[in-house]
């Protein structure tokens, strides 16, 4: 969303009408000085970081004070970056000052005090630290007036003395307001006022709570000086599954239901929560059912799940991919091993006549980081069940060709599923897929060159989302 107001271009990064309204007010507050302003962008959903561009060679000595006043007058900000040519750009420190008297006395911070944090980081902190969680360290909720399910919290105000509950938090919006003393703001402002600290200290403390403290980078004129934070590789589905199997309890599932909008799906899954609470061996497979369904739905839920996992288990999750899930179930089969290896793609198919199909599968695997390994070689040369179990243990994904209903393939599929290995069933004949496996979304293919090419393409896509691209 963007519009021109009194000759100034206004843009809201998140297309928020309320941002545009505030920027219009800012232009009004600037009065005649707004003639020097080319554009204003509001760069944050709730925190109101602003970027203001001054027209080339339109510098005016009154601009710093006027912009600062305007920023406070419209309700405060988390930093204003002003760009002007001839080295006249400057930053204004975050300010939620509530009175214009404060604004009148306002001084532009000296250069060494400049500290404007990346709006993206501020947003991520707001996402991870619920205002209600933070405030509950100081306040006692009025349970009759509050509606927790709607994120509507009421309590006696921590900023002024009172017996009634006029302090209100709108958790989805991340804002508080006291109807008694008019205190208002977001998580940063709340912490500043509770602890008597300044904005940058509050960012550092909340970043720590959110587990984002090593991502603090400054934003603004000196942005180039700050080295980019290396981002860890995004989690792939198998890593997500391993973490969930290892770490999740019932509450985590209910939380991700809320976060992703998949509550109904999670509650209605016939086995997921039940197998969790009973420690049943099919639990990892049920977790995988859920996350592959989320991935396939392409509704953004898988990304929300990832950031949930990031926020809850960030310090542990890299290590968690090495954990042994349900090792007891594995030991019952007489197979001892250290932990899931996840370093190949296991291919289970009947003997004989499947060489061209295997070639297509191999090519699909070559688009990923992992090589294909065919299991029927093992069956051919020996009947050592341990070899098969070891192969499945090594498999990050198991591809099972159900054509002809080969019983070895079904056996392998059953173990793979119970151990929480993603299974991709493929078949030339839909009738070969048993009814209770149809929810696995098998790939149907024709055994001719065109059909195998389609299979290869479909498999490559699925495999890449499971284990990552090469
Ligand atoms: Zn109050």
From TrEMBL:
<dbReference type="InterPro" id="IPR002694">
    <property type="entry name" value="Znf_CHC2"/>
</dbReference>
<dbReference type="InterPro" id="IPR036977">
    <property type="entry name" value="DNA_primase_Znf_CHC2"/>
</dbReference>
<dbReference type="GO" id="GO:0003899">
    <property type="term" value="F:DNA-directed RNA polymerase activity"/>
</dbReference>
<dbReference type="InterPro" id="IPR050219">
    <property type="entry name" value="DnaG_primase"/>
</dbReference>
<dbReference type="GO" id="GO:0006269">
    <property type="term" value="P:DNA replication, synthesis of primer"/>
</dbReference>
<dbReference type="Pfam" id="PF18865">
    <property type="entry name" value="AbiJ_NTD5"/>
</dbReference>
<dbReference type="GO" id="GO:0003677">
    <property type="term" value="F:DNA binding"/>
</dbReference>
<dbReference type="InterPro" id="IPR040508">
    <property type="entry name" value="AbiJ_NTD5"/>
</dbReference>
<dbReference type="GO" id="GO:0008270">
    <property type="term" value="F:zinc ion binding"/>
</dbReference>
<feature type="domain" description="Zinc finger CHC2-type">
    <location>
        <begin position="153"/>
        <end position="207"/>
    </location>
</feature>
<protein>
    <submittedName>
        <fullName>CHC2 zinc finger</fullName>
    </submittedName>
</protein>
<keyword id="KW-0479">Metal-binding</keyword>
<keyword id="KW-0862">Zinc</keyword>
<keyword id="KW-0863">Zinc-finger</keyword>
<dbReference type="Pfam" id="PF01807">
    <property type="entry name" value="Zn_ribbon_DnaG"/>
</dbReference>
<dbReference type="GO" id="GO:0005737">
    <property type="term" value="C:cytoplasm"/>
</dbReference>
